[in-house]
Design a protein that fits this description.
Blueprint lengths: L2 H18 L1 E8 L5 E4 L11 E6 L2 E2 L8 E4 L11 E8 L6 E2 L12 E7 L4 E7 L7 E7 L2 E8 L8 E6 L5 E10 L5 E3 L3 E5 L6 E3 L3 E13 L5 E11 L6 E7 L2 E7 L1
Antiparallel strand pairs: 1-6, 2-5, 2-7, 3-4, 3-6, 8-9, 9-12, 10-11, 10-13, 13-14, 13-15, 16-17, 17-18, 17-19, 19-20
């Protein structure tokens, strides 16, 4: 065999070895449950699809030579909330399936022990029983709806956690809350925190190019079709690029209309 043919055969051999080995990866946190796996036959009909399973880089001792098996996570002495990484190595042209991957996906389980807004206009909340580190979304109720203000990264764990977020209350009574959204896409909410602001009500004047508010305020501008065309926070809103017509203006805790001339 010539050197060229020998090298070509080596390349083909290593290519075959590469495509025969594929991986299915999952990561999450331990929450006390085990994973169940469907293990089809290999494409050539010889043996099962899965070749090995590793949990946090340790070779699993679970019996994988069957059409379905359980990955027993309890044997690794995990604590609730510990990170878990699963690597399932399998043959090509077949695809194993994890039946319940959600058991290691982060769930929203937080409990709020206290939530309030101080005179310094800082929202503070204390939590326990966070099974995983999920973002908290901070919301304020104004203009007959809950408005997103921002996010705070969750710390996770079962220990007590403390969080803060600077807010901008409108005049009068305010309501704030936080929420988390996990893999289920269903939000979980905290109780409302109320705050009574003694700030004067905001007024505004309008010209062809801008809206000038008497005090800094959050604002939204909608067109006649209900589309948001302008949002901001401050004492001025630039409306020079808006078309002539009627618009809806949300500001402070009020909802009004105005005409762009």
């Amino acid at each position: 065999m010539s050197l060229k043919k020998y090298v070509t055969s080596l390349i083909l051999m290593f290519t075959v070895l590469f495509v025969e080995g594929q991986e299915l990866k999952l990561s999450g946190i331990y929450q006390g449950d085990n994973l169940y796996v469907m293990n089809p036959f290999a494409a050539n009909g010889v043996g099962f699809c899965i070749q090995e399973v590793r949990v946090n880089n340790k070779l699993s001792t679970d019996e994988i030579g069957s059409s379905a098996f359980e990955i027993d996570l309890s044997q690794y002495n995990f604590k609730i909330g510990d990170p878990v990484s699963i690597v399932i190595k399998h043959k090509s042209n077949c695809q194993p399936k994890v039946l319940n991957p959600n058991v290691i996906q982060t769930k929203s389980t937080f409990k709020v022990s206290k939530i309030e807004v101080g005179k310094d206009k800082v929202l503070r909340w204390s939590t326990t029983d966070e099974s995983g580190a999920l973002d908290f979304v901070v919301e304020q109720y104004r203009w007959n709806k809950w408005v997103k203000l921002g996010k705070v990264k969750g710390l996770g764990g079962n220990k007590p956690n403390q969080y803060t977020f600077n807010v901008s209350p409108h005049s009068g009574q305010n309501k704030f809350r936080v929420k988390q959204i996990d893999y289920s896409k269903k939000p979980r909410y905290s109780p409302d925190a109320t705050f009574n602001s003694l700030s004067p009500f905001v007024s505004f004047k309008i010209s062809k190019t801008e809206i000038v508010f008497s005090m800094p305020t959050m604002y939204e501008v909608y067109d006649g079709y209900g589309n948001v065309v302008l949002v901001g926070n401050g004492t001025n809103a630039d409306i020079s690029k808006l078309k002539v017509g009627e618009y809806f203006l949300n500001y402070d805790n009020k909802m009004e209309t105005f005409k762009k001339k």
